[in-house]
From TrEMBL:
Keyword vocabulary terms for this entry: Membrane, Transmembrane, Transmembrane helix
Recorded superkingdom: Bacteria
Segments traversing the membrane: 12-33, 39-61, 107-126, 132-151
Protein name: Uncharacterized protein
Phylogenetic placement of the source organism: Bacteria, Pseudomonadati, Bacteroidota, Flavobacteriia, Flavobacteriales
Length: 257
């Protein structure tokens, strides 16, 4: 049985991430604007901030891995099964290759277009105050590094678990999707809620698009995941869409939970 205080511990650990970043930034401010004592305090605060941040990320990753392992067990429970898709290897590889290239494109846009534009704007805005520019650049670099690592991890997981599989299949269940017995798209649990499922064209192929509401910041963010419909099952797309939507959590239902 899980410790009843595990949720409180998880929240406190997650809060350590912004707190540790704050310690590091505060240390840099002390160095920039307090030439004498700032260095001494920073010698303590910077290592402390890095240590807390590292510990927090490791805890989050470990907790997420444990959650996914438990979820795989539930996703393999046939009583939760809504639909099972079996694919021809060629059609599946064609789909995931196009999907992967689309993800790569977003990754490149984030790193090589958005970031230079923001940096150029900062240079124009703070060109006369080099201290503020240095601090802002460090903050931007930190955010960019975290975002790029998260995106890269997502790409690596996508490629390693969806490519090169002899008998590709996807299980659509009431609490998520399990692809090739290892890749998970979760919903209707602590990770988020399925709001709707629609059949549409994606990368020029007939797919089911899952709209999932996840917690983020002050409100909610929406994640979209597309799953290929096997060619031999395309005529059943509307029926499958309807069956999945029976388990969608609308805004009204969500407010009652």
């Amino acid at each position: 049985m899980k410790n009843p205080f595990w949720k409180i511990k998880s929240i406190l650990i997650v809060l350590l991430i912004p707190f540790s970043v704050f310690l590091i930034l505060a240390s840099i401010l002390l160095i920039l604007f307090n030439e004498k004592d700032g260095y001494l305090v920073s010698l303590f605060l910077i290592p402390l901030g890095i240590t807390l941040c590292t510990y927090s990320f490791k805890y989050v990753i470990r907790t997420n891995k444990s959650f996914k392992n438990d979820l795989i067990v539930h996703l393999n429970d046939d009583s939760r099964l809504i639909e099972l898709f079996n694919y021809e290897k060629i059609e599946w590889l064609n789909f995931v290759e196009k999907y992967y290239q689309k993800k790569i494109k977003k990754y490149k846009i984030t790193l090589f277009i958005v970031i230079p534009i923001i940096l150029s704007f900062m240079i124009m805005l703070y060109r006369e105050d080099y201290k503020v520019f240095i601090l802002s650049s460090f903050l931007l670099l930190s955010i960019t590094t975290v975002v790029s690592l998260v995106l890269r991890k997502s790409l690596v997981e996508f490629k390693s678990k969806l490519f090169d599989f002899e008998n590709p299949q996807a299980k659509i269940t009431t609490i998520g999707i399990l692809i090739n017995k290892s890749y998970i798209v979760s919903y209707n649990n602590q990770d988020g809620w399925l709001t709707k499922c629609t059949s549409k064209l994606f990368v020029d192929m007939k797919c089911l698009e899952f709209e999932i509401r996840r917690s983020g910041g002050k409100g909610h963010v929406y994640q979209y995941f597309n799953l290929l419909i096997p060619k031999k099952r395309e005529q059943d797309a509307i029926m499958t869409e309807s069956r999945v939507n029976e388990y969608a959590v609308t805004k009204t239902k969500y407010n009652k939970i």
